[in-house]
Amino acid sequence: xxxxxxxxxxxxxxxxxxxxxxxxxxxxxxxxxxxxxxxxxxxxxxxxxxxxxxxxxxxxxxxxxxxxxxxxxxxxxxxxxxxxxxxxxxxxxxxxxxxxxxxxxxxxxxxxxxxxxxxxxxxxxxxxxxxxxxxxxxxxxxxxxxxxxxxxxxxxxxxxxxxxxxxxxxxxxxxxxxxxxxxxxxxxxxxxxxxxxxxxxxxxxxxxxxxxxxxxxxxxxxxxxxxxxxxxxxxxxxxxxxxxxxxxxxxxxxxxxxxxxxxxx
Length: 265
Ligand code: LHQ
Hints:
Elements: E1 2-7, E2 10-15, H1 26-41, E3 47-52, E4 56-58, H2 81-99, E5 105-109, E6 112-114, H3 116-122, E7 126-130, E8 134-136, H4 150-158, H5 160-169, E9 172-174, H6 175-181, E10 186-188, H7 190-205, H8 209-222, H9 227-242, H10 245-255
Parallel strand pairs: 2-3, 3-5, 4-6, 5-7, 6-8, 7-10
Antiparallel strand pairs: 1-2, 8-9
Enzyme class: isomerase
EC number: 5.3.3.18
Protein name: 2-(1,2-epoxy-1,2-dihydrophenyl)acetyl-CoA isomerase
């Protein structure tokens, strides 16, 4: 249910259940996490690109999965406990894995991204989307709350007012509007999406990826720090990066007026 292919140092993972708009099953969620674990451990991977097969990116949780069957009168009090198990066992580790990847992660949103599918895409570092793609915080429509990090991500991406607009109304937000709102990096003509995403991922893979991953971590962590603490965090990280092979190479390449060849990961 997850296709994997590598071009140079860019690993592409394709969500591949097109008949169900790539809706997440537990099997697919664990395959996806395993693929990200493997990418994180593989020194030949310097950027991950995630996209969907067919006309959708991902329709979120597969609502026909028995694990998410709504409780009925007479069910034991703790049902539907399976939703909790699904979050604890699958969605939370996946969102954490994505957020802590040692390399940059690009999403190429090729069609609708709904519910957990939208928030999984928005959890990637740079989000590109085709003009016909859209983002739907579908949770409210079925009596749920945003998950897969949505409550944390949305207000940080677009501010509280827009986060509430998206999460409470659950309306379909076209990719162009998502870009205008600052929810995603870039909306592109559909026919350019795949090649633009590949080019962006290739470009990132040639950058000092450890510094990029540390940058993501520092920006995320700084949300909880005051200004002085953020300065201290920067100084700590900068001192460490100052000892890196990539810093040495970057400065040497600049002085020698040549292209750098970064290797840290
Ligand atoms: C689907 C789905 C789907 C199964 C389309 N499941 N089959 C929730 C619960 C528990 C724990 C953890 O977390 C979560 C988080 C969540 O993600 S909640 C949100 C779940 N997702 C949704 O509520 C979205 C439901 N889907 C839709 O609203 C529409 O399908 C969208 C807007 C995504 C696309 O609309 P259309 O382009 O009009 O396509 P369609 O509705 O005709 O769907 C095509 C097929 O895909 C269809 O099957 P069929 O056999 O009739 O061709 C759908 O049933 C199936 N499908 N989403 N989530």
